[in-house]
Design goal:
By secondary structure, the chain is of the alpha+beta class. The chain folds into two domains: 110 residues, Metalloproteases ("zincins"), catalytic domain (Zincin-like); 53 residues. It has five helices and six strands.
Amino acid sequence: MDVSEGLWTPQSPLPARTILSRLAARCLSAWRMDSLIPRVRIVYNPRLSTTLGRACLENRRVELNPRLLGEHPDQLLPTLAHELAHLVVYERYGKSARPHGTEFRRLLRALKLPDEAKHHLPVDHLRRNRAKYLYLHRCGDCGQSFLARSVRRNLYCVACGPDMKWDIFRAPNTPAGLQLLRQLRRPKAKRP
């Protein structure tokens, strides 16, 4: 079954939300889930980087990656159907069904679409190279310290109690950064 017939082709620009909603309605009708049509919301999410789409089950929302789908428009319909299938499985079976299990695959096969769980598109150019850091947390009162990969303000020094303040030092997560933090880790001398 070609659910996009007459609505959209991969040669066209990415469709607006109204066309996406019509495509979704055709998929859901094919799966006999017409009751879900008015409750599903489909949006483009530019914050998605390497995934084609995502289904937010409780909100009944499908998020699509406009950049990656703009580069590979032929993946729009399979991605939309894939994410809608997650919503249908959740509606019918709840959390007990496996995300890419038998029920999920059966829905995609009914539309003659691939039932793969992952795409194999080149995405290295989309990955964000985030700098990774280590954080030294040192008690401002007694000098006790620990290292972490994120700032941990919710913890407190056992010796000094919840009213203490951390001195926090950040260094790149490299051997040189680790060495620097280890030097800073030594408790500071108490002032007379």
